[in-house]
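User: My collaborator and I are trying to settle a disagreement about how two of our proteins should look. Neither of us wants to argue from intuition anymore, so we agreed to look at predicted structures for both before our next call. Could you fold the first one, then the second, and keep them clearly separated?

Assistant: That sounds like a sensible way to settle it. I'll keep them separate. The first protein:
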Amino acid sequence: MKKIALHWQIIIALILGILYSYLAISQGWMKFTLYYLRPFGDIFIRLLKMLAIPLVLFSIIKGVAGLSDISRLGRLGAKTFGLYVLTTVVSVTIGLGLVNLIEPGNKIDPAIKGEIQTYVEMNVSQDDGFQSLQAKQDATNKIQEEYGPLFILVESVPDNIFGALTSMSKMLQVIFFAIFFGIGLLFVDRRYSDPVNKAVDGINEVILLLIQWVMRAAPFFVFCLLAGQMARLAGDNPEILSQILQAVGWYMGTVILGLGIMALVFYPSLVALFVRHIGYRGFMRKLIKAQSVAFSTSSSAATLPVTMDVVENDLGVSPQTTNFILPIGATINMDGTSMFQGITAVFLAQFFAGGMEMTDQLLMIGMATLASIGAPAVPSAGLVLLMGILASLGYQAWWVALVFPIDRILDMTRTAINVTGDAAVATLIAQSEGEFTSQESSQ
């Protein structure tokens, strides 16, 4: 009997997890689900996060040290940053076009809207989880006030590399150190650099092996993760959740439509146009595994090991290109998150204030693009950034509480888009640099 491919196993587990959660809510199995299934989902995310930071560190060092020509490093960096910024601007622009065309915030019955506004301001905005997001945003605001527009540059440089290695939110600092260290290896005498390069290669191989072991159990972990998340989302009052879901249904549809355009039209069309030996169908088919893990974990960083495996082994991009581009992309390329911020900000302005001025929307394109560069590749980072954008434009940050209960659902979807964008950019750059290990047709 032919074995089912891993990506299909993950998709089946994902669907079964969602179906089980509905059954658990209706049958009263919440305690069992939260106490005995959800922990395994959390263990899965912890395992991936545990491996993500050392993978980023050693893969970037390996990638940079392998670029014997320092000028090639500059060329690769410029292409990577340029493409990531371009796709982010396109993503935000598409999102703003859709939210202005559909106007989801103006499609809600005024009576229901008034009730929800009161409930959100009095209850959800006081929730511990939301207050935690508010605290994170306050901390970010203090840093911005201290350093001004260059705060992202300051935050990119670690004052203690060992401290940076302990937090997923400091991934940009890990990337800075890895690139800096890799450049240093290019200039030191080979008597000293060769042993270090061999050690880095060895550690990298061990990490990749550990990732393979974790992924063998991914279907079980994904089932537990989805079952636990959906049960937790429903909480003790699924009726309130149902009312909010109905009220923001148009908004959710707008976000999912925009993300769908990016995933099903924009990225694969770019790959089909410039990387013909992979084509549209080849790109979409081979990326399913990484997208499924991204959807279930809601973290680009946690999905990074899987994304690197898919891009290198399935799409055929060289290890050097993969090791350099994807860890950077997992941190600075947040196309799905940027689109979400644009759509959500305008939706909230429509819902609470009747709309948003076009000048504010144009400002938001730049703000969302810049914010995505420093966004931590962890769950719900988009909400924290969105609060800052709303406050900067003169709107109420607590408005975000309206979408807070459903953010986990959208976070899953936009993370899958972030990962798709990372893979597309790596594939395009590999084509421009002639960095494919295989040119066989994938269509």
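The second protein, kept apart from the first:
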Amino acid sequence: MKHFPGLAALACMGLLAGGVAQAVEVKFSGRLVEQPDCVLNAGKDIAVNFADVAVKKIDGVSYKKMEIPYTVSCSGGSPNSGQLKVMLDFTPVSWGDYNPLQTTIPNLGLRIVQGAGDTTYVSKTKLSTDEANPTKLYAVPIGRPGAFLAAGDFSGSATMTAMYE
């Protein structure tokens, strides 16, 4: 096999003879901004009172479907801080397909529904929202399929957070 060193040298000469490359400086700039401070429900706890719930009517869909009433107010920061989001963090029950929030009565959960439809909310999901029209959230009692529900007072809790991302 023959080598052509002259041809390789000639090719390299063509690359070098193309002229001097110009170098330019790349400058970066920006401004760090604070994210707005957001307050949920004027800093007060959010209460959803189901009052009396008939055990045999619990369907996990529409019976006693209650809106979770909240407001979001943000101030300061930059309007370019990102998208305002809300999130509920709760302990789900270990049964069912709807990721219901655990309550103090065994076999009873609270299914959280987002929006006007029937979309189940999953704990720790960040939902886009805005101050003027907060994303609607609802709670609906749901029973464990085939399980006995004992009568009595119940409660459950979640932590709601608002943030910019």
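Some points you might bring to the call about the second protein. Helices lie at 5-16. The mean pLDDT is 88.
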